[in-house]
Amino acid sequence: MLFSGAVGSFCGGYLNDWLVRLTGERKWSRRMLAAPALASAAVGMVLSIQLDDPWPAALCAAWACLAIHLSLPSGWSVVAEISGPHTGAIWGLLNAMGVVGAYLSPIFMGAVVDHFKGLGHVGRAQWDPAYYVYAGLLLIGAVAWLFVNPEKSIALRKEEPCGSQ
User: Model pTM?
Assistant: First the structure.
């Protein structure tokens, strides 16, 4: 899994740059990479829990990891493009948000597993439902990418005083 994530990040950077050069614009180039990558990661995650044979299931899970990481360079590029002079603050905010998700994810997983165990489920029947939630979140992320605009800065223009409309 870690290897597929590394491959995804590496290839995502090249694909990200290649799409911008190919299309000549950033907005749809970023969207064309990130949205399908996250959607295919959701599909890979769902397939990985549907398959009983461990090798195909592991390959689907590895694809999900690769595809998630394939979208990361688009996100990094967008942050660099929209944050203006506030790049450090925006990176810090995004990193903090990621830490919250990383902290809550194992708590959520444990709660789901315990809940389904309490209902009498054993083995995969305890674990699989949480992965459907994660796949759903990936699909929400894919749809959200369709609205990302790296051409619109979040920084105030010099002529706009803070708090003006």
Answer: 0.86
